[in-house]
Structures are given as C-alpha cells and as structure tokens.
Amino acid sequence: MDNKYIKASIILTNIFLVILFLFTVTLPFLVTWYADIMGRSSTLATTVMVTCYPCVPFAATLLWKLRKLLKNALEDNLFSKSSLEHIKKIALCCIVIAVITLIGGNFYLPFLIVGATFSFLSLLLFALRSVFAAYIK
Q1: Which SS3 state, helix, strand or coil, does residue 103 take?
Q2: CA–CA distance, 64 with 60 (Å, rounded to integer)
Q3: Phi-psi bin for 74: left (phi > 0), alpha (psi -120 to 50), beta?
Q4: How far is CA 75 from the centre of its chain?
Q5: What is the pTM for the complete model shown?
Q6: With a cut of 70, which residues of the chain have pLDDT below it?
Q7: How far is C-alpha 128 from the geometric centre of its chain's CA atoms?
Q8: How far from 122 is each of 53, 74, 96, 106, CA to CA, in Å?
Q9: Residues 46, 48, 54, 55: what is their CA dihedral angle, to the nearest 10 degrees?
C-alpha cells in the first residue's frame, strides 16, 4: 500500500480535528452573524446550536477512530479485529449524527441533507465492515 496517501489522510484527519474544535468554539458567533447578515429568524442560531453541539462528541470520536484505522493501515495491520471495531464505532457515530440531524431537519431543512448523507455513510461503513469481517475469517 502506498504510505504517502495514508500519511496524508492522517494529517488531514488531524486538521479536521482542529477544525472541529475551532468550529465548536466559534459556532455561536458564526451562526448569530449569519442570521443577522442573511436576515434569518433569531431562532435559527438556537436551532443550529441545539442540533450541532450534540453531534460534536460523535464527530470527534469518528475522526479519532478514523485516525486509528489509518494508523493500522500504515502499520500493515488493516485487516484485524481492531480495525473492525474502529469501523463499527465510526458507523455507529454516523448513525447517531444522522438521527440528531434528521431531527434538526424538522426545524432547519439543510439538516435533512446532512442526516441523509450520514445515513448513507453508515450503510457503506457497515457493508465495508462486513467485507473486512469476511476477509479476516
């Protein structure tokens, strides 16, 4: 396997973890600013924060497990029981994020797109996990 792509993916995962932290810290200011500039309802900021903040720990866990999965690949240990667990936990985080954002989609429609995307992603990950499990056995 070409290690430069795996190393680049690990670096990008680290960058996304930092972006997630910055997003979490600045979300109230960004959403309030967006609502003011675009002339949106004052409840938009609350809706976005109530939907996004519960997703943060699951997004962080997802990124951290992805990082561990990539580290396994870097060490030529991709097809292992620990990789199966990482993929399973990533898929479960996707399901939780999908449920949260689909509920938020009742109040702000763009969250429906996010929820549908994470639902599809979890389906792909469970299928990938099944393929990995079949290969390992």
Answers
A1: helix
A2: 6
A3: alpha
A4: 24
A5: 0.92
A6: 1
A7: 17
A8: 20, 23, 10, 21
A9: -170
Tokens 């792909």 sit on residue? 124
Q: What single letter denotes the amino acid at residue 34?
A: Y
Tokens of 74: 């870097």
Condensed to tens digits (0 to 9), the pLDDT of residues 54-86 reads 999 999 999 999 999 999 999 988 889 999 999
- 3-state helix, strand, coil split of the chain in percent (to 5) is 85, 0, 15
Answer whether 97's CB lies under 8 Å from 61's CB: no
Q: How far apart are CA 123 and CA 4, in angstroms?
A: 28
Report the amino acid identity of residue 100.
Answer: I
Q: Which of 63, 62, 29 is nearest to 48 (CA)?
A: 29
- Residue 126 CA, chain-centre distance (Å), reads 15
Give which of 26, 136, 50 is closest to 100, Cα–Cα: 50
Buried b (16+ CB within 10 A) or exposed e, 82-103: ebbebbbbbbbbbbbbbbbbbe
CA 34 to CA 45: how far, in whole Å?
Answer: 8
